[in-house]
């Protein structure tokens, strides 16, 4: 289990909660027997619960309590009473619906930007309290975040499993495994989630030590990495430099023939913040650096590159320089790019255009072309921010760059209608929304009141939903609907429709 616990009396205790899974509501009907009456209790969110219902003798009292699931908060009962727990005097059959809303949701219109920043400065270290060893994960706060999600793996490049979330910029997990890698994302009030942070590493020896021993944390990735030739054109010596990292005891330097290729270690330094590559490859050389100490090694730095002409004379060929890319459009998108013609930049003979698919979490090759533009079809464009990479290629090598589009809105459902089915059911219908992966139905007791989620229909592409609903006779209920798109790191919401009402 993962916890936010008190740290030296300076931290508030929070539970880092496993995310709720929302299912459909189901209510039991009312039964009447002589002077015995049934109090039916239910929740508009099925992962939340209500206690205190049952069959009672006329005139007795019972207490009903709305119990929110982790990540939700109680708002009110369906008759507008906000007292919780609430004492009821039984005088007849009655139904009480507890209205919950997701923390940070607010029942608003959704939508919004998905460009929430990724958390930085993630660290992990061992702490011991009352004989129990914990791993403390900390990171820099993101101003627009209402919560953070924490992910875990036993290797730096392995699959990261979602652990849970917290509203603070720290969390605890009980130490058990030897090798522990963590990444963090930020989530805003509209449910938009950032990309995953660089990983933080913590070694746990199982005897109260760990974190590299004595609470040492894994160093941050080096910054300010540069590469320059301090030799000659015929005998290049590439000096790779970087800014020192405060708790690093050494550095590892890696090289690749492409920015996104496999990086192989070419050397290490114990204290100096530079290293020489005396045998650079012909064409582009890409370099990354890691900082190391007794706790482990940092994530890779950002890459730097040097274009080596191979020691030739005036007729030497160069690999291309990275293109400059721009993206425009919404339903279909136009990708255009320019290529530098400065000294040291070769002329490309072709280009490859890639589009990132958040559902498969892979870059899809869209086209190979000799032009400097590409029109991405609407079938590939998804709601939210779309990412594109263009690779410039010639016989000497290749170079690429990446650009993003403006956020693509998700259309709200049309033809929304609500129909009462007898005295205990409602039928919802709407028109399908292109690209939607599901829908959310909201409910309110007044037309202009606060709307909270009544049904969360994730992974649902249908256009009809029939629900049990123990409506109170003479009461009018109001409903709205929005479309959602959940895929990979993308969480997009349409605006809410205008309300539809039904009276029991």
Characterization of this structure:
The chain is mainly β and 504 residues long. The chain is built from no helices and 39 strands. The strands form 10 sheets. The protein has a 5-stranded antiparallel beta sheet, with no helix packed on it. Strand 22 and strand 23 form a beta hairpin. The two termini are 45 Å apart. The N terminus is likely disordered.
Please tag this protein with its features.
5-stranded antiparallel β-sheet, 45% strand, 504 residues, 0% helix, mainly beta, disordered N terminus
Please give a quick description of this structure.
The chain is mainly beta and 504 residues long. It has strands at residues 2-4, 14-15, 36-43, 49-51, 54-57, 61-67, 72-77, 86-89, 94-102, 123-129, 132-138, 147-153, 161-166, 170-174, 179-187, 200-203, 226-229, 238-241, 250-256, 264-269, 274-277, 283-293, 296-297, 304-308, 324-328, 333-338, 350-357, 362-369, 373-376, 387-394, 397-404, 417-420, 425-429, 438-444, 452-458, 464-468, 476-487, 490-493, 500-503.
Number of E-state strands: 39
Q: Note the gap between the termini.
A: 45 Å
How helix-rich are the residues, as a percent range? under 10%
* Backbone structural class: mainly beta
Weakly predicted, low-confidence segments = 1-33, 104-114, 208-215, 310-315
How are the strands of the largest sheet arranged?
2-1-14-11-10
Largest sheet: 5 strands, antiparallel
Beta-strand portion reads over 45%
Instruction: Give the averaged pLDDT, no decimals.
Output: 79
What is the number of helices? 0
**Cα-atom radius of gyration:** 29 Å
Rough shape?
A: flat
């Amino acid at each position: 289990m993962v916890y936010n616990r008190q740290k030296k009396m300076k931290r508030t205790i929070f539970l880092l909660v496993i995310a709720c899974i929302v299912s459909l509501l189901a209510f039991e009907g009312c039964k009447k027997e002589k002077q015995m009456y049934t109090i039916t209790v239910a929740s508009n969110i099925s992962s939340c619960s209500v206690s205190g219902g049952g069959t009672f003798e006329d005139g007795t009292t019972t207490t009903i309590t709305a119990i929110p699931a982790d990540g939700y908060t109680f708002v009110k009962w369906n008759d507008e009473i906000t007292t919780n727990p609430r004492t009821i005097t039984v005088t007849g059959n009655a139904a009480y619906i507890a209205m919950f809303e997701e923390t940070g949701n607010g029942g608003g219109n959704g939508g919004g930007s998905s460009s929430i920043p990724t958390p930085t400065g993630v660290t992990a270290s061992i702490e011991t309290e009352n004989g129990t060893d914990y791993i403390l994960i900390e990171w820099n706060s993101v101003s627009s975040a209402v919560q953070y999600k924490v992910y875990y793996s036993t290797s730096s490049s392995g699959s990261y499993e979602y652990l849970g979330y917290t509203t603070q910029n720290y969390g605890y997990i009980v130490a058990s495994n030897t090798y522990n890698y963590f990444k963090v994302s930020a989530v805003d009030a509209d449910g938009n989630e950032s990309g995953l942070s660089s990983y933080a590493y913590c070694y746990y020896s199982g005897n109260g030590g760990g974190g590299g021993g004595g609470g040492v944390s894994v160093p941050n990735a080096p910054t300010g990495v540069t590469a320059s030739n301090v030799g000659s054109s015929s005998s290049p010596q590439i000096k790779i430099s970087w800014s020192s990292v405060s708790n690093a005891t050494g550095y590892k330097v890696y090289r690749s023939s492409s920015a996104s290729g496999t990086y192989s270690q070419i050397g290490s330094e114990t204290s100096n913040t530079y290293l020489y590559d005396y045998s650079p490859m012909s064409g582009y050389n890409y370099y990354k650096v890691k900082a190391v100490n007794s706790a482990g090694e940092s994530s890779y730095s950002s890459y730097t590159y040097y274009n080596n002409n191979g020691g030739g004379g005036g007729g030497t060929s160069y690999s291309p320089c990275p293109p400059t890319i721009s993206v425009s459009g919404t339903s279909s998108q136009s990708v255009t790019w320019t290529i530098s013609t400065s000294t040291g930049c070769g002329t490309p003979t072709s280009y490859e255009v890639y589009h990132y698919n958040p559902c498969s979490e892979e870059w899809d090759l869209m086209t190979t072309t000799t032009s400097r533009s590409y029109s991405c079809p609407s079938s590939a464009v998804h709601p939210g921010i779309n990412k594109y990479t263009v690779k410039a290629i010639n016989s000497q090598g290749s170079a690429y760059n990446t650009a993003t589009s403006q956020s693509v809105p998700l259309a709200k459902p049309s033809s929304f209608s609500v129909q009462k089915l007898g005295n205990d059911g409602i039928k919802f219908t709407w028109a399908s929304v292109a690209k939607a992966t599901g829908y959310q139905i909201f409910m309110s007791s007044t037309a202009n009141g606060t709307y909270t989620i009544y049904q969360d229909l994730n992974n649902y592409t249908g256009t009809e939903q029939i629900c049990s609903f123990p409506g109170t006779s003479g009461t009018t209920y109001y409903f709205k609907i929005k479309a959602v798109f959940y895929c990979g790191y993308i969480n997009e919401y349409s605006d809410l429709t205008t309300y539809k009402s039904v009276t029991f």
